[in-house]
Write a structure and sequence with these properties.
Length: 134
């Protein structure tokens, strides 16, 4: 399931008072995230994504993503174990003149789909070879 939000950030924001936007996520794996900074952001719009109060994009709690005319495509593979879970996008706009609107998208897939094709078969074959004598 693809979750998508356009988030408008007013001018003059700061990390002390970020805009928080939530996604309600079902159990599964956040397989990929896209964060689009349109032209004009000039690195002044900052974004991070949190789960349970802890950032996972980027992982470092003191970091954030920023950009201008750029889309981050992030292969996250971040598991959501409870239903439903809140994923929070925390963002702010340090531009003192213009508002900016960013796009944030999260692709959440079933956990089984996150396994590479043949992974289960390989694991089972390896276990059989350990416990079975020929």
């Amino acid at each position: 399931m693809l979750h998508s939000r356009q988030i408008t950030l007013t001018a003059g924001g700061s990390s002390a008072n970020p805009t928080k936007t939530s996604f309600l996520a079902n159990q599964g794996v956040i397989a990929r995230a896209w964060i689009t900074f349109p032209p004009g952001c000039a690195g002044l719009v900052k974004v991070r994504i949190l789960h349970g109060g802890h950032p996972f994009i980027p992982v470092d709690p003191n970091q954030y993503l920023r950009g201008d005319s750029y889309t981050y495509e992030i292969p996250a593979m971040y598991e959501i174990t409870d239903v439903p879970e809140l994923i929070i996008v925390e963002a702010w706009n340090e531009d003192d003149t213009y508002n900016h609107t960013i796009d944030v998208q999260l692709l959440i897939i079933e956990k089984a789909w996150g396994q590479p094709v043949g992974a289960y078969e390989g694991i089972i074959a390896a276990l059989k070879s350990i416990f079975t004598r020929r």
